[in-house]
UniProtKB/TrEMBL annotation:
Gene3D superfamilies: Vaccinia Virus protein VP39
Signal peptide residues on this chain, from the entry's feature table: none
Protein name: ETFB lysine methyltransferase
Keyword RNA-binding: no
Entry similarity comment: Belongs to the methyltransferase superfamily. ETFBKMT family.
Taxonomy of the source species: Eukaryota, Viridiplantae, Streptophyta, Embryophyta, Tracheophyta
GO biological process: methylation
Any single Gene Ontology cellular-component annotation: mitochondrion
Organism: Brassica campestris (Field mustard)
PANTHER family referenced in this protein's UniProt entry, alphabetically: ELECTRON TRANSFER FLAVOPROTEIN BETA SUBUNIT LYSINE METHYLTRANSFERASE
InterPro entries for this protein: Ribosomal_L11_MeTrfase_PrmA (IPR050078), SAM-dependent_MTases_sf (IPR029063)
Record flagged with keyword RNA-binding: no
Keywords: Methyltransferase, Transferase
MF term (GO), any: protein-lysine N-methyltransferase activity
CDD domains reported in the protein's UniProt record: AdoMet_MTases
Length: 226
């Protein structure tokens, strides 16, 4: 399939999302095509003077910017990053949110995923965007209960864009890495699943709000201090 036709819906979605331009490099002799995504900010609640360029080769990992939950998380992330924050992307996939956080002004990012291919993809994309290793750390989530090399209450902003079951089962675990008063985003869920997710997180979060695109939602709030 011709690469440009494959990404026409992707380009259109990004332009609707507020991108100032989208360019796809074609190379018939190379399977590692890179997407040069200029993510604009016209729909974000935080004013940004210039667009943010993110080069992505998602490979098999989730996170191209096309899916509604990724759009919702990008919009939320841009509104939350004021400058200097420590950001955790739980379920990092291609690393798009972790990289975007640094582009928006975060001091550091950490990405966690259960899929080794996702960690490889995120690492590759960080390299494509000239992200230094000391600013972005990537961790493979262990299949058992072993601790990851992340500190509890380490992060100012935490976003988990994952599936419903881990969203529900790992709520306390995910929020354990957030500082009291940290900004939290939970996505990867459908509108019909929101009531149960909201009930699960209400004891942990305050000032809960919800953004939607179609049938998909992103719930956000701040971690309770006690």
């Amino acid at each position: 399939m011709h690469l440009t036709s494959q990404f026409d819906p992707f380009s259109e979605a990004l332009l609707c999302f507020g991108a100032s331009s989208v360019a796809v490099d074609e190379d018939d002799d190379d399977d590692d095509e890179d997407e040069d995504v200029t993510s604009g900010s016209s729909l974000a609640s935080k004013e940004v003077a210039e667009g943010v360029n993110i080069i992505l080769n998602p490979g098999l990992a989730f996170g191209t910017g096309e899916h509604p939950t990724t759009k919702l998380c990008l919009l939320l992330l841009q509104s939350l990053i004021k400058g200097g924050e420590a950001f955790l992307d739980y379920g990092t996939g291609s690393g798009i949110l972790a990289i975007a956080a640094l582009k928006f002004g975060a001091a550091s990012s950490a990405g966690v995923d259960i899929d080794p291919l996702a960690i490889k993809s995120a690492s590759h994309n960080a390299s494509l965007n000239n992200i230094p290793l000391e600013k972005l750390e990537l961790h493979l989530a262990p299949s058992d209960n072993r601790e990851m090399p992340l500190r509890k209450e380490q992060f100012d902003v935490v976003i988990a864009n994952i599936l419903l079951n881990p969203v529900m089962e790992l709520a306390d675990h995910i929020l354990s890495f957030a500082k009291p008063g940290a900004a939290i985003g939970i996505s990867g869920i459908l509108s019909e699943q929101l009531p149960s997710v909201k009930e699960r997180y209400s004891p942990l979060l305050e000032d809960i709000s919800v953004a939607t695109i179609g049938d998909w939602v992103c719930m956000s709030g701040t971690k309770k201090r006690s």
